[in-house]
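Title: Prediction job returns without error message
Component: structure pipeline
Severity: low
Priority: P3
Assignee: unassigned

Description:
Job completed but the reporter wants confirmation the result is attached to the right record. Sequence as submitted:
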Amino acid sequence: MHPTIARVTKRIRKRSEAQRSAYLARIHKASHDGPARSQTSCSNLAHVMAAASPIEKKAIAAGEVANLGIVTAYNDMLSAHQPFETYPAQIKRAAARYGAVAQVAGGVPAMCDGVTQGQDGMDLSLFSRDVIALSTAVALSHNVFDAAIFLGICDKIVPGMLIGALSFGHLPAIFAPAGPMVSGLSNKEKARVREEFAAGRIDRAELLEAEAAAYHAPGTCTFYGTANSNQMLMEFMGLQLPGGSFVNPGTALREKLTDEAVRRVLQNTSLGDAYVPVGEIIDEKAIVNAIIGLLATGGSTNHTIHLIAIARAAGITIDWQDFAELSTVVPLLARVYPNGTADVNHFHAAGGLGLVVRELLDAGLLHDDVTTVLGKGMRRFSEEPFADNDTVAWRPVPGASLDPEIIASVDQPFDQEGGLRLVQGNLGRAIVKISAVADDYHAITAPARVFGSQQEFKQAFNDGELDMDFVAVLANQGPAAIGMPELHKLTPYLGLLQNRGFRVALLTDGRMSGASGKVLAAIQATPEAARGGLIGKIRDGDEITIDAVSGQLSVADAGVAQREAGSDDIGAHEYGVGRELFVAFRERASSAEEGGSFFPGNT
């Protein structure tokens, strides 16, 4: 094991010792010898099985077979979750084949950042994760299940489900994805068309035609944003079957993987071959593996928030320094859009996550001695699945990358480091992702241009006011202010300005996600403006330095601290599209580096 990884893991374990021990004590107390429903009254149990078939009623009443709870994020508006419509029936059939019962325990909301980008609904996005965690807990609160299977894919859904699952950490759990849509319009072409629209060279009809050609079928979007990063994390943490993340919907292999997920999680119950609760799978080494996977594949910066919240739900404390130190030794092994031109289907065909896992394990850059849904060890996750008659089997991944422009080896990586940097100084702390940023743009010192919103920035661009070197500053975008929306509407405009030869960058206490792209962006600044952060006192013309090489984030004028905070009116963000219901979330939200969470344990 690489000494830096060993040192960071040891530091996390020591930092987390008290809360981790308390968490494990709680889940061990919650565990039962046999099905939890055996502890319920006859009236309780009658409600559980009232709508079940006669065969299921007999099995549930006897208490001798496992009852698998299904928690689903199905809806048919979002392409990634539409395939889940048929999963409950399939899971029930599979459970019956394996001598068990399955019931839909409950559903969770699933909103799409792709739909709400630049819209008022984006102000609910981050907090939807905590709502999903609460919904997961409600689904499982009947306490009649021996294990749970989670049907979720996208940005906040998987982290929220896992946080909720960890509150029932005594239960075995597994995640069953639906896979990405088949490739459509290339991500490179999609980005080009967006920049053409931003420049005014094409109209809205042409833009919509391109977008619809990119997002065109059931399945996850094919770029490597938060949704597909979620799938990577589930494999790297051992909560999903090896190689199953990027198998397309509607294929025979996809169906067989779902059946196998049912079989596997049933084996992990107290009635199966080996009891493997989710709260023991997610330990310090699993969290470190997740960070390493994020860095090695150039995944979404949203997980510098979500992984912190997930870890805390398991009694583990991590921070951005942990990410930054691991990034110095974990090489970048994948080039998937926005860090390259390939999509996740191309990545999967080139060797996929299994090849990345093998490279990291062989180089001592990943913990192998972990517990997964398959038992002990990560080595099984360096295999790929294939359909074998009526079932699924695994074989070793290719001996080398089938496309070295998409997946590299540890010996010849795309970059010697993972590309996540921590920058800090008198403006606080922020995250910078440089894996898609050219070396010449890793640092900037330029005057600030302060904007109250993405729309204000767009108007200034359209008015020709931004043909200059500058750092765009958007404050009051954090969790406590307006819920920490993503600011993707800025991406094509900043990209155009950089193409024109100007040195530009972004500083914000909001988010940018995995699609931040080629422009230097210091994001998730903490303390945020709404909690007294200096970012809220910056004025036009202040000299800002963002240096991802030296790790600096500062404003030159020391007198900024004595100023009154800016007068951005965020009142308009408190009402409409349900935002008035989230007042308590904004008031209680922890900082981005503490997970941006509503839950008391995460503040």
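Comment from assignee: result matches the submitted record. The mean pLDDT is 92.
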